[in-house]
Amino acid sequence: MEMHLDNINKVQLPKHIAIIMDGNGRWAQEKGEDRLYGHFHGVNSVRSVAEGASEIGIEYLTLYAFSTENWDRPQQEVNGLMELLIQTIRKEVPTLNKNNIRLLVIGDLSMLPKDAQDEMNEALEETQHNSGLKLILALSYSSRWELVLAIKNIAKDIVSRQLSPEEINQTVIEKYLTTSGIPDPELLIRTSGEHRVSNFLLYQIAYSELYFTDTKWPDFDKEKLFEAIVAYQNRERRFGKTGEQIKKG
Questions:
Q1: Burial level of 58, CB count in 10 A (0-12/13-18/19+)?
Q2: 70 an active-site residue?
Q3: Residue 60 has what DSSP assignment?
Q4: What is the maximal distance between C-alpha atoms in the chain?
Q5: pLDDT tens track of the chain, all 249 residues?
Q6: What whole-number distance in Å separates Cα of residue 245 and Cα of residue 240?
Q7: What's the angle, vertex CA 27, arms to CA 26 and CA 31, rounded to 5?
Q8: What angle do CA 68, 74, 76 make, to 5 degrees?
Q9: Are 22 and 216 in contact (CB under 8 A)?
Q10: CA-CA to 246 of 20 to 30 Å: which in 33, 85, 146, 181?
């Protein structure tokens, strides 16, 4: 761990890292266990990665915990995931407070069971004054859902004359997204060897660096996070410019 940590440039840290946590089910099946066993162990990775991000000064960490498409999974797995979510939030709030981590959430929370909504709202309230890492859980989230919602709300405001079509620009659109006020992620990590973004933050990752690892989520810890950050820092971010333009500043 120290090797990767020592190689990190603390001055050029990404402000926001987003992670697609993938591979819990396959990790469990390889061990002859059911998929929920993998989700249970994946919680340890969430704790390790959040603590690692907090330690080195990352400001925002968004974790894709449950997509709107995940509702189509077998009912037993969905029920188990919801129960695990409730237990985890209840258990982790003291640790979040100890580490000065503020919990935020994006997604269609109306689809969550009421006890999960209640537990989430309580955790959001109990951590709202923490000033360190903002840990954002994407729950019952998909980017297309978010974009449809944003377009609907823009249309409503045009109809009510609070907004005119001529005023619409990127800044206005960003205010209607669930990530309003949150900077776009500079680094997107996906675990478990899949090379796709799976309907996650499609608008926000327009210029994100993508980092794919074969490591399945239960085996991804703060050391693996630091390794991804080092890889990110060794890349040249050009934003459509040439390398020569970037060097000239």
A1: buried
A2: yes
A3: E
A4: 59
A5: 456 888 999 999 999 999 999 999 999 999 999 999 999 999 999 999 999 999 999 999 999 999 999 999 999 999 889 998 989 999 999 999 999 999 999 999 999 999 999 999 999 999 999 999 999 999 999 999 999 999 999 999 999 999 999 999 999 999 999 999 999 999 999 999 999 999 999 999 999 999 999 999 999 999 999 999 999 999 976 545 555 655 555
A6: 10
A7: 110
A8: 110
A9: yes
A10: 181
The closest alpha carbon to 36, from 62, 74, 71, 4, belongs to 74
Q: How far apart are CA 100 and CA 97, in angstroms?
A: 5
Gyration radius of the chain over CA positions? 19
Six-digit token pair at 42?
């994946």
Q: Which of 22, 24, 184, 221 is catalytic?
A: 22
Q: In this predicted model, what pLDDT tens digit does every residue of 176-225 receive, in sequence order?
A: 999 999 999 999 999 999 999 999 999 999 999 999 999 999 999 999 99
Six-digit token string for 140: 């019952």
Q: Which residue has the tokens 């919680």?
A: 43
Q: Which of 34, 44, 70, 157 is catalytic?
A: 70
In whole angstroms, give the CA distance from residue 28 to residue 128.
34
Q: Which residue is it, tokens 């996906």? A: 190
In angstroms, the first-to-last Cα distance of the chain is 33
Active site residue 157: no
Q: Which of 174, 186, 153 is nearest to 53 (CA)?
A: 186
Coil, strand, or helix at residue 141? strand
